[in-house]
Structures are given as structure tokens and as C-alpha cells.
Amino acid sequence: MTPLISFRDAGVAFGSKQVLEGLNLDIAEGEFVCVVGASGCGKTTMLRLIAGLHPPSEGVVSYAGQAIARPRPEIAIVFQDYGKALLPWRTVSGNIELALEAAGTPRAERGAIIANLIALMGLEGDGGKFPSELSGGMQQRVQIARSLAQRPQVLLMDEPFGALDAMTRQGLQDELQRLMMQQRMTVFFVTHDLEEAIYLGDRVIGLRRNPGRIGKVFDVRIGRPRDQVATPEDPEFLRIRRELYDFIRDTEREPAS
Amino acid sequence: MRQRDLLWGLASVCFAALLVFLWHLISAYRLVAPVFLPPPLAAFNALANGFEDGRLASATAETLERIFLGWLLASVLGIMVGAWIGISAFARNYVMPTLELLRPLPASAAIPVAITFFGLSDAMVLASVGFGAVWPMLLATAYGVAAVDVRLVEVSRMLRLGRFSYLRIIALPNALPDILSGMRVGLVVALIITIVGEMLTSRTGLGQWIMLAARSFRSADLFAGIVILGLIGLASALMLSQIERWLLRWRLQA
Ligand SMILES: Nc1ncnc2c1ncn2[C@@H]1O[C@H](COP(=O)(O)OP(=O)(O)O)[C@@H](O)[C@H]1O
Ligand SMILES: [Mg+2]
């Protein structure tokens, strides 16, 4: 089976600085891939390659066999800074509608789609509110709803829950898991939280830095749905967790830039 | 919140009353000759008379129309050109420098130019108002359109918004607070230039009214005209801030 997304000897340089090098990775359709690594190792840059927001300096990154040259309608993104990614002058519904407008969805069909997404993301009753009236967690739900309105095949998430408190984060992790089980989507999820990566991922990619490259790949063979209490006690979880911590500690011993 | 608004409103009414009272004292004690400064009551009588025989009312209506049309022209032009400059590197590099050259020209310098083109006509007033009032709107729009947060630019790239959609959906709403304050400044400029233009062209209007009253030492009529100008300024500012409050209601929360 051809992979949905593949990196072939892909690298990125900013000027003379090699940020990513020799990336080779295949992501299958429906897979949940998490990427971890020290800050500044190039996780966001890797995600931006798939998004089509940045071209590789060498090699190829492709979607369904086609090189990604610019953003594609099948690929949606969720940014960490929900406060900046939403239109502050639009209500919750208006922000979700943005994706539908952009996709040229007829006006008459938008209302039902928005209502569905609002229900799906637990935003009932908030449709008429402005982002400034919502908590961080609710704002991030709006951003996820908007990305889903795009009906993407691939969801890119750059530390989406990094700015949220622990309770909110766990709630959203479980909703994301439920969503992914319902709608067969491929997810590329960047995080610096190792437990989060193991809890959510089918695979966890550990990056080394200077230049950023794939150091170690962990397959997470833990059934779904996973559980916030039971899963972290699973022997498989604990084993990967230990190995991942060792790996990260090892990468941090390497010199920084 | 409401109570504080009310208190401030009350305070400003008191302040206005105080000024009128001072005015009354100055003219009652003849600190300034009544030929130059009429007592407030005389000015208000002139106001009432002027409206009764309809001359002041029609002058006011004409002036309002000129201010509004000129301001509208300046707004439409300013927002369109400003949006273009804000979004296009070409316009920023090739059009903006020329505009920077024109901008420091005071509107009063534009009036003689407008006169050679349009004569002493309404079109000349309109052109002068348009030229003078366009700058605050143009610059505010150009700034606000260009100052979209990089994150929102990326969001619109991911959604593959075309240039025009980007302008309509992201950049112009992003510029709205700036545009509104530009329009507020533009309105004041439009008022000033309209009056000057009316004085020069001698077309029916408050400018002409004030000019004629001053020439014939009818200080009560003169002050009646000035009071109306002040009221126009006040009313338009209040109206604009109501509109602004509604348009920017998303900002008031949190
Ligand atoms: N636009 C850019 N120009 C120059 N350097 C950049 C740019 N974007 C990222 N970098 C550099 O690339 C490296 C990786 O950045 P990033 O992908 O954001 O790391 P991470 O997301 O893992 O923290 C950092 O050293 C950063 O300074
Ligand atoms: Mg990052």
C-alpha cells in the first residue's frame, strides 16, 4: 500500500543553518503519528513541510504520491496559539464558517454543517459567542471544529494542547481520540509532552537535533480506546515511556546550536 | 459601568453650562464689545430666528450634505487605495512614494488647484474635501491591512483563500479599528475644509453664513453659525462612536 504522506531524503535549511536533514518517513492512511523532541529541533518545521507552508530545501515531501508544493485542501492544521488563529471579530459559528466559505460550500448548506461541528466539539450554546468570551480550551475546540469543517484527510496539530491546563488537556486528548476512531483521519501530532505522545500515538517519532533528524521510532501497541487512568499503567506504556525518556535525555546531551 | 457613563455625561453637560455661563459673564460685564461677542441669549435668539425663517436651516442642510459627500468620497477612495497599498508590494513600492509626496500638502494648498480645475463650484469643494480627508483613512487602511498577524496569514494560506477573499474576510476586518479611527479624523477634516470652501465659493452654507455675518458685524448670527458647527461636530462624533461600539463589540468583552 502506498503511504499517504512520505518524506524522501527531505531537509530544510534556513540560510546556512541546516534545520532538518535526511528525513525518511512513511505515514499510512489512518495512522496517528506523534513527534517529540527537544525544543528547537525542528518539529514545527517538519509539520510545515506537510502543510505546504514551507518547501523542503532538498528531497521531497509528498501526499498520495504528489509532491506538496503548497497547502492542499485535504490537509488541515491546528495551531497551538488558538488566540491568534481565530478571527476575534467573528463568533464561534463565524469562525467555523470561515473554512466553509473558503471551500466554496453553498451558504444554504453551511448552517447544518456548523451545527453538527458545534455539537461534535461540545460547543452547544456557544455558537454566538466571540472567542474573547471563551476559555482557552473552548477556543481550541473552535479551532479544531474549523479544521474539521475543511473535511480533511490529514490533520496536522502543532502542540495543540500545550497551552492548556492538565484537566482541559486530558479532556481534549480523549475527544481527539474519539474523533479519530470515528472518522478515519490521519494525524500528525507535534508535542513536547512524552506521555501525551504515547497516549495518543500509534507511532512516536523521536527527533534528534542539530540538525534535526529522526532518531528513534516507537510503535505503540496499545489497544483503543485508551484510558487516562489505565493506559499510563499499562506495561507497554511504561516500557516505551522509559525508552523515550532515555532517548530524549540522550539527545539533550548533544550540543545545542 | 452605566452609572459611570451617566456621571461622565453629566459632568460634560456641567462643563458646557459653565462655559456658557462664563460667556454670559464676559458679555454682561462688557469685557468684550457686543459687536464682537454677543450675549449667549442673543446668539440663541439668532439661532431660533434663523431656523424660523428657514435660511439657517437650509444653510445647515447644504453644509451637512457637502461634509457628508466629501467624507464619503474620501472614505471610499481612502479605503480602496489603502487596501491596495496594504496588500500589494507593487503599490507599496511604486504608488506609496508619490502619495507620500502629496500627503504633506495642506488641504488649503489643494484648494487653489481645485479652483483652477473646477472653478468656484460645489465640485471644487467636494474635491478639496476629498483630497484633505482622504489621508487618515488611506494610511489607517494601509496600515491595518498590512498588519495582519502572521498566524492569521497562515490560516488563510491553509484555507487557500484567494487574494480578494483574503482582503474581504481577513485583512479589512483586521483593519477595521484603524479604519474607524481614520474615519473619525477624516470627518473633522471634512468639516473644516467644507467651511473654508463655502467661504471661498460663496455658495449657500454655514461657511458663507458665518462669513457674511462677520463682514456685517452681526455677531449674534455669527455665533449662531458657530454653535451649529460645534453641534455638528459633537453629533457626528457621538454617532460614529455608537457605530464603532457596535462594529467592534467583539473587543469590549473579556
Ligand atoms: N523562518 C525561519 N527562519 C530562520 N530560522 C528558523 C525559521 N523557522 C524556524 N527556524 C529555526 O529552525 C529551528 C527549528 O525550529 P522549529 O521547527 O520551530 O523547532 P521546534 O518546533 O521543534 O521547537 C530553530 O532553531 C529555529 O530557530
Ligand atoms: Mg514548535
UniProtKB/TrEMBL annotation, chain A:
What protein am I looking at?
ABC transporter ATP-binding protein
Q: Does the keyword Ribosomal protein apply?
A: no
**Entry-linked InterPro entries:** AAA+_ATPase, ABC_transporter-like_ATP-bd, ABC_transporter-like_CS, ABC_transporter_ATP-bind, P-loop_NTPase
**A family per Pfam:** ABC_tran
GO MF terms here are: ATP binding
Q: What family does the database annotate?
A: Belongs to the ABC transporter superfamily.
Give a yes or no for keyword Nucleotidyltransferase in this entry: no
Query: Which terms are listed as keywords in the entry?
Result: ATP-binding, Nucleotide-binding, Transport
What residue stretches are annotated with the ABC transporter domain? 5-234
UniProtKB/TrEMBL annotation, chain B:
- Mark the transmembrane ranges: 7-26, 68-89, 101-120, 126-146, 182-201, 222-243
| Keyword annotations | Cell membrane, Membrane, Transmembrane, Transmembrane helix, Transport
ABC transmembrane type-1 domain ranges (all copies) = 60-244
Please name the InterPro entries in this protein's record.
MetI-like, MetI-like_sf
Q: Which residues form a coiled coil?
A: none
**CDD domains in alphabetical order:** TM_PBP2
Subcellular location per the Swiss-Prot or TrEMBL entry: Cell membrane
ATP-binding listed as a keyword: no
Identify the Gene3D superfamilies for this entry: MetI-like (1.10.3720.10)
Primary localisation category: membrane
UniProt membrane topology term = Multi-pass membrane protein
Please verify whether the record's keywords include Membrane: yes
Q: Taxonomically, which superkingdom? A: Bacteria
Q: Which family does it belong to?
A: Belongs to the binding-protein-dependent transport system permease family.
Which PANTHER family does the record cross-reference, listed alphabetically? Answer: ABC TRANSPORTER PERMEASE PROTEIN MJ0413-RELATED (PTHR30151:SF0), ALKANE SULFONATE ABC TRANSPORTER-RELATED, MEMBRANE SUBUNIT (PTHR30151)
Q: What is this protein called?
A: ABC transporter permease
Organism whose genome encodes this protein: Aquibium pacificus
